[in-house]
Amino acid sequence: MDRPSTGPPPDRPEQEALFDWSDAAPRPSAFADSAQARRLLDVREVYAEPAALDSPRGRQIMARLPDARVTEVPSHWRIPSLHGNDGNVARWVRVKTETLVLGVKRTLETRPNGRSADWIAPGASNGCAMSCAYCYVPRRKGYANPITLFTNIEAIVAHVRRHVRAQGPKPEPNQCDPHAWVYDIGENGDCSVDALVCDNTADLIAAFRTLPTAKASFATKFVNPDLLALDPRGRTRVRFSVMPSADARVLDIRTSPVAERIAAAPDFLDAGYEVHFNLSPVVLRPGWQRDWADLLTHLDDVLPARVKQQAAAEIIMLTHNEQLHEVNLGWHPRAEDLLWQPAAQETKRSQNGALNVRYSPDVKRRSLEQLQHLLTTHAPWLRVRYAF
Ligand code: SF4
């Protein structure tokens, strides 16, 4: 007698696809294939865990990168030639532009937050192709960390769905949202950039479309017009991060210009996103009040009423880190003129031993009062959800 098979039929993938994917045919995409997109991300080299390569999502990603060189690695966490802070900025930028890592996310955990979002969902990526000088994402893998995409997106989506359903309806309004549980889906990267090479962002947006008690949320510094086709039906909040252009030119390396992010807001709203703004990070320096006033005036001038009616903002004062300060001095000391202000900042040892630097409570309180006054004067429609 034949023994019953315990594995999948030979013609079926080990990890059955939940989504309507095609491994072979790359999805037509206007922007991801453009020269503009390729200046940011032009993948030529892939480091991948074998299980990630074997997964449906891994196969789909690789089908779009037929010429990329592939190196198998035992873990996306330990790739000595990529990680750490040795090397100069030219190499970092090349790594971030040309290298992609594929891995499997082993621990799926949703953490409570309560500030920007109610919950932090397990991210579908880690790392970024952009190079903001204050970014905390490199804290574990080092500054040169390129995008790692997690290919077990079915498991991530199933985990989030279960978590949302277990909460039931939101019992009362809070600063995150009056009705929906808000899940941050992009804690350790930028979902707009991930979407240039992978459908993880699209799958998460599609999942939240069908979860009436919850909402996805992610901050971004990159305008990816391909996101306009994802039909979020109001269940995804995109938070465009903005800061005065004078700061962004020094600090927001490789991002979309701030004016471009603001100009994209009506298109994203019309495409079905909720559009908020992160006033972030607020960097204190001589003249900051004048430049923030100009930025808020610009928002008021260019945004149509329909964007203003639904907009809200987070204010996030700069937090810096001694280790990152040392790294930045090696490649971008001008950024440190803005970020490292010991007279106004105090240090605090974090749980993982890092020495974090933030404005002292007095400086922060006075600055937040000033910024709130600027908001009331120049953009009174911009409700502040929270300031940190
Ligand atoms: S866009 Fe976000 S994740 Fe990327 S480098 Fe800037 S701060 Fe870091």
Largest sheet: number of strands, sense, barrel closure: 8 strands, mixed
SSE string, helices as H and strands as E: HEHHEHEEEEEHEHHEEHHEHHEEHHEEHE
What amount of the residues lies in strands?
15-25%
Q: What is the number of strand segments? A: 16
**Which molecules other than protein and nucleic acid are bound?**
iron/sulfur cluster
Number of domains: 1
Organism: Streptomyces cremeus
InterPro entries: SPL (IPR049539), Uncharacterised_Spl-rel (IPR023805)
Protein name: Spore photoproduct lyase family protein
GO molecular function, one term: lyase activity
What report would you give on this structure?
- The protein is an alpha/beta fold.
- The protein has a single domain (35-387), classed as pyruvate-formate lyase- activating enzyme (Alpha-Beta Horseshoe).
- The chain contains 14 helices and 16 strands.
- Helix 10 (288-302) packs parallel to helix 14 (361-378) and helix 12 runs antiparallel to helix 13 (333-339).
- The longest helix has 18 residues, at 361-378.
- The protein is globular, with a radius of gyration of 21 Å.
- The chain starts with 34 loop residues before the first helix and ends with a strand.
- The chain binds iron/sulfur cluster.
- Residues 128, 130-132, 135, 137, 189-190, 221, 255 line the site of iron/sulfur cluster.
